[in-house]
Amino acid sequence: xxxxxxxxxxxxxxxxxxxxxxxxxxxxxxxxxxxxxxxxxxxxxxxxxxxxxxxxxxxxxxxxxxxxxxxxxxxxxxxxxxxxxxxxxxxxxxxxxxxxxxxxxxxxxxxxxxxxxxxxxxxxxxxxxxxxxxxxxxxxxxxxxxxxxxxxxxxxxxxxxxxxxxxxxxxxxxxxxxxxxxxxxxxxxxxxxxxxxxxxxxxxxxxxxxxxxxxxxxxxxxxxxxxxxxxxxxxxxxxxxxxxxxxxxxxxxxxxxxxxxxxxxxxxxxxxxxxxxxxxxxxxxxxxxxxxxxxxxxxxxxxxxxxxxxxxxxxxxxxxxxxxxxxxxxxxxxxxxxxxxxxxxxxxxxxxxxxxxxxxxxxxxxxxxxxxxxxxxxxxxxxxxxxxxxxxxxxxxxxxxxxxxxxxxxxxxxxxxxxxxxxxxxxxxxxxxxxxxxxxxxxxxxxxxxxxxxxxxxxxxxxxxxxxxxxxxxxxxxxxxxxxxxxxxxxxxxxxxxxxxxxxxxxxxxxxxxxxxxxxxxxxxxxxxxxxxxxxxxxxxxxxxxxxxxxxx
Length: 553
Ligand code: F6P
Known about the structure:
The protein is 47% helix and 10% strand. By secondary structure, it is α/β, with parallel strands linked by helices. The protein folds into 3 domains: 11-91 and 302-509, Rossmann fold (3-Layer(aba) Sandwich), CATH 3.40.50.10490; 106-292, Glucose-6-phosphate isomerase like protein, domain 1 (Rossmann fold, 3-Layer(aba) Sandwich), CATH 3.40.50.10490; 512-552. The structure holds 6-O-phosphono-beta-D-fructofuranose. 6-O-phosphono-beta-D-fructofuranose (F6P) is lined by residues 160-163, 213-215, 218, 221, 276-277, 362, 510, 513.
C-alpha cells in the first residue's frame, strides 16, 4: 500500500513504529513486572501523573523509560499534538462529515473565543447553559408545573446512544448530589418494555419528558417519544395543549422538533460540532442539570476544563491522556491485546464503562484511515467492564489465569460519599483493599515456589500459580464529585482522541451504525405486513418467516 497523499509514510512503515516493534521483540518473552520493580523501585513514584484531582499511576505497565520514549516519538511523528491544536482551534478535523470537533467549547469560559466558520461559538454555548439553568431551577423549585398545575416530580429522558448514555451514567455517578425528591428515569430501547417500566408507576400530571436527539430523526427515540405522548394524553384527558408543559426537546434540529409538536421555545439547542458521544455536557445534560442543579453542573464543566487545559498544555511526558492513549497502543498494536477493561471500584460508576464503550468503540472502531484506505494496523479495542468487586466474582478469573492479555484501568476514591452512615462508610476501606489487592495480584501473581512454600500438593501447583504481569493503570481521586466526574470523562475523551490521531482514523464519524438502521427500516414491513422485501437474503427471509409463524401460534 502506497504512502498517504500527503507524502508521509503509512503508520506501520514509519521508523518510529518499527522501532517499537524491534523494542517489543528484544524484550520477548515480556518484560517482567517483578524484575522491573526489583531493578527500579522508584518507578512506583516516577510513573505517576497528576491532573486536577486525579492521581494516575501507570507503574504497573510492561514498559521501561525506553518504551515510553519510543511511544512518545511515535506520537510526535504522527503529529498528535498538531491535530489536538487543530481540534481546539475549531478546524474541521471530522473529515468525512466536514465538521469541527468542539466538545471542548462546551466547557470553555464565557470570555473564550473559539470560531467556527468565522463565528465565535462560545456566547451561544453560555446562552444555552443559562437557558438550561433557568429551566432546571424552575423545575427544581416547583415553579414549572404540569398541565393540571401540579408540580413536576418525575423526569424521563428519552434518547439513545450519546443522547442517553452520558446523562444516565452521570446521573448514577452523582446520585448523592441529586434532588432526592425527584425521580429520574432514562428510556432508550425501542423495546416497548423500556418505556412501560419507566412510566408504569408514574403520574402523567407530574411527569416531564425530555426528548434528547441530536438529529431528531432517530427511530428509537421518535417512536418512544410518540408513545410517551400518547401515554401522557391518555392520562390527562387528551388535551393536546398538555404537550407544551410536559415535553421539552434537546436537539440541533429545530424543524423536526416543531414537526413533532414540541414548542421550539422549549427546545435546548446544540450544534453539529458536538458529536453525540461527546454531548452530555451540552443541552443533552438537561436531565442531569435538573437532578444536580446548575451550580453542580457548572462544577462538572470546570472539571472537564481542567483536563482540557492539561491535555492542551502539559508536556508529552506528563500528559495523562497522551500517556493513556499510547499505553493502549503499546498493547493493542504491539502485544495483540484485543480488549481493554475499565473497572471502577465505585457503585456510583456502575454505568461508566457502558458510557465509555460508546465513546471509545464508536469513535475508534474504524478500518479505513482518514484518506479512506484500509488500515494495516489494529484500531480501537473492545472496551468492557463493570464495578470491580462484582467483576472479581465473575470474570476476573479469566484476567488472572486465562490466556489473553487484558490491560485494565482500576478507578477508586479515597473517601466514600458523605451521606453514607458510619457503618457503611467503614466498608470503604474493604472496597479499596480489593482494588489494591487486585492490582497487586494482576501485576505480580504468585510463583510456583510461593505456592509450594504454602504446602500445596504438587499436582495442584500449576492450578494455583498466577503468572502475573497483567498491566493496570490505577486512577485514584479523593472523592467522586461533579468536578472529578468531568475530569474522568475528559481524560477518556482525550485518550480516545490520541489513539485515533496515531492510527490516522476519523474518530468523529460513525458510518458503521448507519447500515443496520437502514436495513431495520427496510425489513420492518416484512414483519408487520408480511410484505415482500426485495433483496432480503435467504437466511434473514427464513428468520422473518419463522418469527411470523411463531407470533401466530
Ligand atoms: O448510534 C448512532 C448514533 O448516531 C450515535 O452516534 C448517537 O449518539 C445516537 O445515534 C443518537 O443519535 P441522536 O442523538 O441523533 O438521536
